[in-house]
């Protein structure tokens, strides 16, 4: 277990507090944990820390980001589903834990649509097909040709079996009629290390985690996995426009609590998350990482989870994706 702690803001005198703070709904009595289902350094972890720091200041308390990696977020989600519904333990939910894994992995013991209290959507990001700066084969046509010339020998890393990145690879293989090796990791941190070190040929990674290395020139962005290009990477083509029509495999992140979180607390937390993501520095950070479509009501987020749950269940079934891939 690894933890990132954010120092609480200095306590404001009651008379000097803004009116919205004095009149706001209830918050947890003590420190808050945001549990992340991946190792430090990945996209989910990065966004949880960015949001957690600001929420700690707004809530005048300590917010800890606690990493519980494994099973592409399922371990963390299962843990949070069993915690008291008092707001002290939240989850940075992910497309893996709340849409893909329930359809793909055996023995998922929680119901993603019923065992949590949705708070707010934090962002939707494309995944990114990347390689290291040492890789000479860098375009989609060249990669397709390479996979066909060396069936079952070209390696693609992902952040775990059953992850959105794994599903992006499976969709890529299926549409292109390709054979390739899937190398799963427990998050983006180790994945990037091995990609840059040459242990794997390519990676499907979150745009959030890949962007800093792309900016440094250490990783090369080959293609992105939403139907339209992210504003932050307008020069990187989509797979949809590169010979893989309809390939849409985005990641998303959102804050949830255990089932039964008091409605007034959900409303307060939702308002504060929306306030945070609209702050200029956070909005700029989300744009930088390609995280779009953030915010809105808790009800909108609940509806989004339901839609994603159905969408990915269909993808898993239609593509006949197996966890052994």
Describe this structure in words.
With 325 residues, this protein is α/β, with parallel strands linked by helices. The protein is built from eleven helices and eleven strands. It has two domains: 2-125 and 251-319, 3-Layer(aba) Sandwich (D-Maltodextrin-Binding Protein, domain 2); 127-224, Periplasmic binding protein-like II (D-Maltodextrin-Binding Protein, domain 2, 3-Layer(aba) Sandwich). It has helices at 19-22, 43-59, 74-81, 95-104, 140-149, 164-176, 188-197, 207-215, 263-277, 280-288, 298-319, and strands at 2-6, 32-36, 63-67, 89-94, 116-125, 127-132, 155-158, 181-184, 202-206, 219-224, 251-258. The strands form two sheets. It has a six-stranded mixed beta sheet with strand order 1-3-2-4-11-5, sandwiched between helices. It has a five-stranded mixed beta sheet with strand order 8-7-9-6-10. Helix 6 links the parallel strand 7 and strand 8 (181-184). Helix 2 crosses helix 8 (207-215) and helix 4 (95-104) runs parallel beside helix 11. The longest helix has 22 residues, at 298-319. The relative contact order is 0.19.
Radius of gyration: 20 Å
How many domain regions?
2
Overall strand count: 11
Portion of residues in beta strands equals 15-25%
The CATH superfamily of the largest domain appears as Bordetella uptake gene, domain 1
- In round numbers, the mean pLDDT is 89
Distance between the amino and carboxyl termini:
28 Å
- As residue ranges, the low-confidence spans are 1-23
Q: What level of helicity do the residues show?
A: 25-40%
Strand neighbour order, sheet with most strands: 1-3-2-4-11-5
Based on helices, strands and strand pairing, what is the structural class? Answer: alpha/beta
**Shape-level CATH architecture of the largest domain:** 3-Layer(aba) Sandwich
Overall geometry comes to: globular
- Helix-strand pattern: EHEHEHEHEEHEHEHEHEEHHH
Oligomer: single chain
CATH topology heading of the largest domain: D-Maltodextrin-Binding Protein, domain 2
Q: What is the CATH class designation of the largest domain?
A: Alpha Beta
